[in-house]
Design goal:
Layout lengths: L22 H18 L3 E4 L18 H4 L1 H13 L3 E4 L12 H7 L12 E7 L2 E5 L8 E2 L4
Parallel strand pairs: 1-2, 3-5
Antiparallel strand pairs: 3-4
Amino acid sequence: MKVTGRPGLKEGDSRRWQNDPHLRVSIGYLDAIFDYLGETGLRMYRISSDIAPYVTHPDLPQFHAQIEECLDELATLGAKARSLDLRLSMHPSQYIVLNAVDERVARAASSPGTSSAPGTRVNLSCSKPRNRAISRKCCTFAAIDCCAR
């Protein structure tokens, strides 16, 4: 998602695979966005589903471990979101079609090798136990429960 209130803020590492993009870069960008949200009093943000570049690309296995490599950074980012009382959401990319007519497409969208396996969640923000902003992408990378940390 593009932040228009402050020029220059990026959300995801959009470099091509040849330039070794990484979730760690996206986390740095999100950290700066969270600072901006805190300064302006905005409390809702939709995180792009592309923050972990190539994480599920079948031909680029060198990118598949980004989530595990960044667990500590994700926990820190989640703590920051909670401290700023941010409500976060994340939606699946347009390529994830769980209700596809073609059975192969639906199966591929929900397979464990997809960054969009149903039931997987990224929980970056929960300001109050009764109001957990759990970002279910129908399939988001890996189960990361930053609220438990």
